[in-house]
TrEMBL record:
Protein's UniProt keywords contain Repressor: no
GO-annotated biological processes: starch catabolic process
Family annotation (InterPro entries): GH, Glyco_hydro_14, Glyco_hydro_14_CS
Similarity annotation: Belongs to the glycosyl hydrolase 14 family.
Coiled coil: none
UniProt organism field: Hordeum vulgare subsp. vulgare
Entry protein name: Beta-amylase
Enzyme active site: E194, E393
Major enzyme class: hydrolase
Catalytic reaction equation(s): Hydrolysis of (1->4)-alpha-D-glucosidic linkages in polysaccharides so as to remove successive maltose units from the non-reducing ends of the chains
UniProt binding sites for substrate: D62, H102, D110, K308, H313, T355, N394, A395, R423
Length: 448
């Protein structure tokens, strides 16, 4: 509770001086081959200085598990990140460091490929049930399945232990920057760094917008948990697997018996049991990872924790909210699935970072039943209800005034504690784009 109060106090002080804007660095800022150097170093100092001159508060950078601990378990190389943080400090910029325990590649905006650490992939090759699995047996190597969180399957360590050890090593190597330059640690918890299941993978054309995605609960570890939950509920048959009538990755809700509006299985006794278990497993995973993060950073003054929640806005205008359900968010027209997530974050004093705050309903295709504005309001209400700060990101690269206006309105109405812009690159520094962006940063500094 003390941490939550401190976070609330920090949020309040931020609002008085406007909403600080951070900018995401390129995904391959640190050289992926060795982790010791920086790409585009010659232009980086110039670009950081330009960001500072525009009033930007700081930058966000992915600290890739596959780069830092890529070759050998327990052997860390933060040299490249040390150089970057030094450059940010010299430019008088703050840093949001993302503990990226996922694979880069296969999601929206992934322009490079950074796999999980080699030794982790080798373990997953030996035991493919360490990977999230769908009902057709497709394995995902984006992130280690949460079903084995507490099983010593990674070179004798549990995944939770690996994540905590990594964060502790980060803290120890960059201790001199914590609180002054590094002001936030965003804790990755799934694909794209988001707290969710890999239900809508773009790799190899598996999923395309606006498909509903697919449940990811068919590895042996999650199936064992489901069986035990079904037995405890007095219905062992419910533990044989996920719904068999939920369609495929690119189905629409009304194409399926499970997600259809009238009498769909999602609203049956079995559907409520399954979705409660599926979402509970995700929230408990977040709780375990955040507990590790809090044990490492909880006593570091000036450093706050945050967690990213995905902005799954398509089919949000339907009864079932199918894409949210397959991702692990038990959120329907009649049930709030975000308050339990926000409450879990609140227990650790963490900020809820939400995407798609730049989107407007009217911009979306009608057949996809998108409601990004309503979704943002719902998540913001959950954050308020749990007493946690709300931060935002744009889901897609945008350089137009309409997107900036939407972010500004949301920042004011929902009292956001920070906004992180996606992403720094050559397009951002094009004269017209840069002019609009700099004006946006100024307007955000006056919001609150």
């Amino acid at each position: 509770m003390a941490e939550s109060a401190a976070a609330a106090g920090q949020s309040s002080s931020v609002r008085k001086s406007g909403v600080p804007v951070f900018v995401m660095m390129p995904l391959d800022t640190v050289k992926t081959c060795c982790g010791s150097g920086l790409n585009h170093r010659r232009t980086m100092a110039r670009d950081l200085a330009a960001l500072k001159s525009s009033g930007v508060e700081g930058v966000m950078v992915d600290v890739w598990w596959g780069v830092v601990e890529g070759e050998e378990s327990g052997l860390y190389n933060f040299e490249g990140y040390m150089k970057l943080v030094e450059m940010a400090r010299d430019a008088k910029l703050k840093v949001q460091a993302v503990m990226s325990f996922h694979q880069c590649g296969g999601n929206v905006g992934d322009t490079v490929n950074i796999p999980l650490p080699r030794w982790v992939v080798e373990e997953m090759d030996k035991d493919q049930d360490l990977a999230y699995t769908d009902q057709c047996g497709r394995r995902s190597y984006e992130y280690v399945s949460l079903g084995c969180d507490d099983v010593p399957v990674l070179d004798g360590r549990t995944p939770i232990r690996c994540y905590t050890d990594f964060m502790r090593a980060f803290r120890d190597h960059l201790a001199g920057f914590l609180g002054d330059t590094i002001v936030e640690v965003q804790v990755g918890m799934g694909p794209a760094g988001e707290l969710r299941y890999p239900s809508y993978p773009e790799s190899e054309g598996t999923w395309k917008f606006p498909g509903i995605g697919a449940f990811q609960c068919y590895d042996k570890y999650l199936l064992n948990s489901l069986r035990m939950a079904a037995v405890a509920a007095g219905n062992p048959d419910w533990g044989l697997g996920g719904p068999t009538d939920a369609g495929g990755y690119n189905s629409r809700p009304d194409d399926t018996d499970f997600f259809r509006q009238d009498g769909g299985g999602w609203d049956s006794e079995y559907g409520q049991f399954f979705m409660s278990w599926y979402s509970r497993m995700l929230i408990e995973h977040g709780d375990r990872v955040l507990s590790g993060a809090a044990s490492v950073f909880g006593h570091e003054p000036g450093v706050r924790l945050s967690v990213k929640v995905a902005g799954i806005h398509w089919h949000h205008g339907t009864e079932s909210h199918a894409p949210e359900l397959t991702a692990g968010y038990y959120n329907t027209r009649r049930r709030d699935g975000y308050l339990p997530i926000a409450s879990m974050l609140g227990r650790h004093g963490a900020v809820l970072n939400f995407t798609c705050v730049e989107m407007r309903d009217e911009e979306q295709p009608r057949d996809a039943r998108c409601m990004p504005e309503g979704l943002v309001r719902r998540v913001a209400a959950a954050a308020r209800g749990a007493g946690v700060g709300l931060a935002g990101e744009n889901a897609l690269p945008r350089y137009d005034d309409a997107a900036y206006d939407q972010v500004l309105v949301t920042a004011r109405e929902e009292r956001m504690v920070a906004f992180t812009y996606l992403r720094m690159g050559s397009d951002l520094f094009q004269p017209d784009n840069w002019r609009r962006f700099a004006a946006f940063v100024t307007r955000m500094s006056e919001a609150g």
